[in-house]
């Protein structure tokens, strides 16, 4: 398939005319600017078509980038990026144990709180049996990462979705007391997602659910470790 | 909304490759219908189009031919990008693909062979690896059937352009035939078996040089099929009538020429699926000894969950010995050593037949060991397993030593001298290189019977001391 490349100055001018009608501002409404140019396709040469297709293509690519970034950063951040005219809002510096936005934490650093802000990655070591709590099914599991272990409670359909050996990514999770058990869970606003299997090493000691916590004397909103109840889980014993 | 490649269950993240293919398809959908743009795409646009077309072929069978024509029209790199995407798809996603997608995938592979797309041989090898061992489920048999047919149909093209793929196919189907020929003869297997035997016999009888490429494991595989008449005839010819196999530029005179050819690690990799390989390599590089129990349980739960699946352990042991050679750094650390994993696999076998085959796989490189040609890393796990089992698991040492002595005496009576030389040089090299300090730990072990220790002493001395 041969392409004829016009080197005429005339055809070059045509190309410049078309490219000026198109800007890559990332604004989806750019497409509406292109609509009059679409009719040019019927009359112009190959070179113009090619140039037009290229610019159209770069908009497609930009849109895909736009959607991907939106997913990555969260909606708020994207608009901040695109509208550079607005000043970035100053966020208060978070105090220990209270975060405005969730960030990945290692299991050894989780602290009981009434916040659903825990984001973490871990592997399921063992799964207990599924029981009924009222209308809903619950299932207690032992999970761990390279730094610590903890009891994760599955709820409802989660009980069927995960098995030992699965690597899970938790977002907006909550680490708190439920019926005197200190457990990590997704909660109403959090999400558990399986991202892999097998390829993660772990430790079973310490177990964050087997620690006795007390309110921090200097800041009663936070909790600090008081003493260790058991180095490892009492519900899921170590395998000899 | 594009149709899916896999059935991603709830709570599971969509695979990144699948996402990239689907998004490319969705964004470029209008450009995928004729009339096609004749514009030359930029490199980024080209990659995107390749992804979109791949997704289109796999999910829109009714438009597959159109998509392929589009690909032929715009390809500028010998299909390298496209075939690379296909390869990644097979390696990372094949087990989860929907049945209709798998059908399209094999059809597509056939098309890429037709245009000699760069890298199609890697795709074929990857598909061969997806044939699960010891699995007579419909999906697996379907794949076997499609691949055998593909190899027979594309015989001339492959022979001329990528003969090494036929060697890989021979290794795979010889191994898979032992699964299909085992047990009760089933109707659905008969046609498939006929085809597989036909392909293997064709390669052996017409292109023997491809068998020579495989090396000693070729004989090991053939011996498992000695109850099949065609292969019994082949073995007889190899041992008693080698001149029947005319090989251009090479005098095939004796089976020992095959014995002394080390099998490349690429063959041991063939019978291990990419998932299994990832898990085994992770176990042997990132998990500490003492913390490996759970990972072993998960591995067994996924790959060894049925009694018949034990036969895969033979291939796993061959892989660990030949295709996974840890660095000195890892050997000296507390990461799970290869001998420990092999010990666990050996003790988890229930069937005597499997145990014997596993031990053969473990010692196979010892029998005709030659320092100049063989790799000490292939023989290291066996000796370490014997030595480290001595205090607490001495029955393993006993069983292994007994098997080794029995093997040397009976594996190939005509060539016993060669095997004694091979095994003794293997022992001597291991001591010389410091893999074990000396053989005293075995020779002076109180828990081993004296007869066994005598046999070992004679073997190490090269069979020169006393009479065998």
UniProtKB/TrEMBL annotation, chain A:
Residues 1-18 have a biased composition (Basic and acidic residues). Keywords: DNA-binding. Coiled coil: none annotated. Residues 1-26 are annotated as: Disordered. GO terms for cellular component: chromosome; SOSS complex. GO terms for biological process: double-strand break repair via homologous recombination; mitotic G2/M transition checkpoint; response to ionizing radiation. InterPro entries: NA-bd_OB-fold, SOSS-B. This is SOSS complex subunit B homolog. It comes from the Eukaryota. The keyword DNA-binding applies. The keyword DNA-binding applies. One of its GO terms (molecular function) is DNA binding. It comes from Sphenostylis stenocarpa. Signal peptide: none annotated.
From TrEMBL, chain B:
One of its GO terms (cellular component) is cytoplasm. InterPro entries: INTS3 (IPR045334), INTS3_N (IPR019333). It holds the Pfam family Ints3_N. Residues 45-457 form the Integrator complex subunit 3 N-terminal domain. This is Integrator complex subunit 3 N-terminal domain-containing protein. The lineage of its organism: Eukaryota, Viridiplantae, Streptophyta, Embryophyta, Tracheophyta.
């Amino acid at each position: 398939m041969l392409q004829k490349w016009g080197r005429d100055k005339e055809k070059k001018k045509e190309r410049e005319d078309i490219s000026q009608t198109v800007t890559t501002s990332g604004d989806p409404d750019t497409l509406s600017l292109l609509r009059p140019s679409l009719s040019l396709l019927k009359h112009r040469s190959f070179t113009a078509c090619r140039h037009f297709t290229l610019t159209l293509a770069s908009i497609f690519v930009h849109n895909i980038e736009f959607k991907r970034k939106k997913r990555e950063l969260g909606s708020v951040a994207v608009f901040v990026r695109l509208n550079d005219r607005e000043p970035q809002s100053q966020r208060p510096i978070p105090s220990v144990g209270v975060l405005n936005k969730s960030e990945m934490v290692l299991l050894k650093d989780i602290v009981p709180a009434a916040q659903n802000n825990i984001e973490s990655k871990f592997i399921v070591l063992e799964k207990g049996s599924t029981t009924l709590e009222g209308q809903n099914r619950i299932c207690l599991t032992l999970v761990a990462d390279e730094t610590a272990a903890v009891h994760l409670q599955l709820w409802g359909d989660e009980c069927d979705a995960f098995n030992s050996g699965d690597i899970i990514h938790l977002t907006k999770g909550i680490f708190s007391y439920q019926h005197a058990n200190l457990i990590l869970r997704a909660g109403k606003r959090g999400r558990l997602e399986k991202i892999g299997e097998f390829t993660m090493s772990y430790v079973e000691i310490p177990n964050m659910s087997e620690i006795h916590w007390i309110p921090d004397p200097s800041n009663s909103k936070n909790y600090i470790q008081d003493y260790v109840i058991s180095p490892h889980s009492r519900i899921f014993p170590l395998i000899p | 909304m594009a149709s899916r490649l896999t059935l991603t269950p709830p709570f599971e993240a969509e695979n990144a490759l699948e996402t990239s293919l689907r998004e490319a398809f969705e964004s470029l959908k209008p450009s995928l219908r004729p009339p096609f743009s004749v514009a030359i795409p930029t490199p980024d646009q080209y990659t995107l189009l390749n992804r979109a077309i791949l997704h289109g072929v796999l999910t829109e069978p009714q438009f597959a031919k159109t998509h392929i024509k589009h690909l032929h029209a715009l390809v500028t790199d010998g299909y390298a990008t496209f075939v690379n995407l296909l390869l990644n798809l097979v390696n990372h996603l094949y087990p989860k693909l929907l049945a209709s997608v798998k059908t399209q995938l094999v059809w597509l592979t056939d098309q890429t062979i037709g245009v000699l797309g760069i890298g199609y041989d890697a795709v074929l090898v990857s598909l061969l690896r997806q044939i699960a061992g010891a699995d007579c489920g419909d999906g697996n048999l379907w794949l076997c059937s499609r691949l055998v047919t593909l190899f027979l149909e594309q015989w001339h093209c492959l022979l001329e352009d990528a003969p090494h793929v036929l060697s890989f196919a021979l290794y795979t189907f010889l191994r898979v035939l032992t699964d299909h020929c085992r047990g009760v003869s089933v109707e659905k297997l008969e046609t498939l078996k006929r085809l597989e035997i036909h392909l293997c016999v064709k390669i052996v009888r017409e292109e023997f040089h491809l068998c020579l490429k495989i090396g000693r494991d070729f004989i090991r595989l053939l011996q498992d099929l000695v109850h099949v008449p065609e292969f019994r005839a082949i073995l007889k010819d190899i041992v008693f009538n080698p001149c029947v196999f005319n090989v251009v530029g090479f005098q095939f005179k004796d089976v020992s020429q095959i014995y002394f050819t080390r099998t490349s690690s690429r063959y041991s990799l063939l019978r291990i699926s990419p998932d299994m390989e990832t898990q085994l390599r992770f176990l042997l590089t990132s998990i500490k000894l003492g913390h490996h129990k759970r990972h072993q349980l998960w591995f067994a739960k996924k790959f060894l969950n049925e009694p018949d699946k034990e036969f895969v352990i033979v291939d796993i042991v061959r892989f660990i010995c030949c295709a996974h050679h840890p660095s000195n750094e890892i050997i000296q650390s507390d990461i799970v050593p290869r001998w420990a994993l092999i010990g666990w696999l050996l003790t988890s076998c229930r069937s005597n037949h499997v145990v014997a085959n596993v031990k053969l796989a473990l010692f196979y490189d010892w029998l005709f060991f030659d320092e100049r040609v063989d790799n000490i890393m292939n023989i290291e796990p066996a000796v370490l397993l014997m030595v480290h089992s001595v205090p607490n698991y001495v029955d393993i040492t006993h069983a292994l030593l007994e098997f080794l002595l029995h093997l040397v005496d009976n594996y190939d009576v005509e060539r016993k001298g060669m095997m004694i030389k091979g095994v003794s040089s293997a022992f001597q090299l291991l001591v010389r290189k410091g893999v074990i300090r000396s053989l005293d730990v075995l020779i002076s072990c109180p828990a081993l019977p004296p007869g066994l220790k005598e046999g070992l002493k004679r073997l190490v001395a090269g069979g020169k001391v006393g009479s065998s």
